[in-house]
Design brief:
Length: about 80
């Protein structure tokens, strides 16, 4: 698979995902992704993006300003 931004090869990697919500900042560590070694662009598969949405929805229920969570696969959790 190649990068949509620069057409270079993508490799399996992990990334830290940041989401700014009205009430807090969410940081999700070790998220599986495809990363471009040339431009650094990061791409998430559909299942990973869905899981990120689930994690963010859970965090929205918490009363906090910053949340740092570890990525876990919903099937394994």
């Amino acid at each position: 698979m190649t990068c949509y931004a620069c057409n270079y090869e993508l490799t399996q990697s992990t990334a830290t995902y940041f989401a700014g919500l009205k009430s807090c900042m969410v940081i999700i560590k070790n998220v599986p992704c495809l990363e471009c070694k040339r431009c650094g662009e990061v791409f998430y598969s559909d299942p990973v993006a869905e899981r990120l949405d689930e994690i963010i929805a859970q965090v929205k229920k918490l009363v906090t300003e910053t949340a740092v969570v570890e990525y876990t696969d919903s099937q394994a959790a």
